[in-house]
Design goal:
two-stranded antiparallel sheet, 6 helices, Collagenase (Catalytic Domain), 11 strands, 7-stranded mixed β-sheet, binds zinc ion, alpha/beta, about 15% strand, globular, single chain
């Protein structure tokens, strides 16, 4: 039944992309200063140390923030995110005009079916998010050692997914670093077409920004990506998240 369902969808050209993200668990206290992370990476330059999280809004009490969300949640899936995240929001600190640097692995000679067009499509995905004019913008760099956000390719995941984002946050729930891995092939072996690669990147960048999954299947942040561009709800939700401080809401 499951196989027949998949074949039916394929026949309509609506190839579903499965995505997965890894994020720090929301529960459990850790020692002060310890980074909440699901990945260890010492090779990537950290965010500019001169940029400090805008903590002034942390004083806004949680009840007030919850009221603010209630008044602004129409047209967003913020409640889905809060349900996934145990009522906490994580996002990057405001960058004050300093973009995050993105390095997209330019070649992958050891991966069959890889095309540089994939790189161009992932760039398009970053630019589509950048067009929202959030307090976090992106710029591309040629040297991975300069990058805040590396994007790397693998042949395929063992699991039935096509992309993975790992990110870390500090004790105050501000995202500190992140990386994205994209697969050239579905775990079944089929190569992703370029539009699917772009959609997969849109989804993973959504995670990178702090978004989580929505039940809205017409949004790119659905767990199984069916659409090929950001929805109005994707945009509205990201704008709302970036109008709020990071942190728990209860
Ligand atoms: Zn996801």
């Amino acid at each position: 039944m499951r196989a027949a369902y998949g074949i039916l969808l394929l026949s309509f050209g609506a190839l579903i992309l499965r995505a997965e993200h890894s994020s720090p668990s929301g529960s459990g206290r850790v020692a002060a200063g310890e980074r909440h992370t699901s990945v260890s990476s010492g090779t990537i330059a950290r965010a500019l140390s001169a940029i400090t999280p805008s903590r002034s809004r942390d004083d806004e009490d949680r009840a007030a923030r919850r009221r603010r969300i209630r008044s602004a949640q129409a047209g967003t899936y913020i409640t889905d995110i809060l349900a996934e995240r145990d009522s906490s929001l994580s996002r990057w600190p405001d960058r004050h005009g300093v973009p995050l640097t993105v390095w997209i692995q330019p070649t992958a000679n050891n991966i069959d079916d890889f095309t540089p067009n994939f790189v161009a499509r992932v760039r398009q995905a970053f630019l589509e998010w950048s067009a929202l004019n959030l307090p976090v913008q992106f710029t591309f760099v040629d040297d991975s050692t300069d990058a805040d956000i590396p994007v790397v390719w693998i042949d395929r995941f063992k699991e039935p997914i096509s992309g993975r984002t790992r990110w870390s946050r500090d004790d105050d729930w501000w995202i500190t670093d992140a990386n994205i891995t994209l697969a050239v092939h579905h775990s079944s072996g089929e190569v992703l077409d370029e539009d699917s690669m772009r959609a997969m990147a849109l989804h993973e960048i959504g995670h990178l920004l702090g978004l989580d999954h929505t039940r809205d299947t017409m949004s790119v942040m659905a767990p199984k990506v069916r659409v090929r561009q950001l929805s109005d709800a994707d945009r509205a939700t990201a704008r709302l998240v970036y109008a709020l401080p990071a942190g728990p809401l209860r």
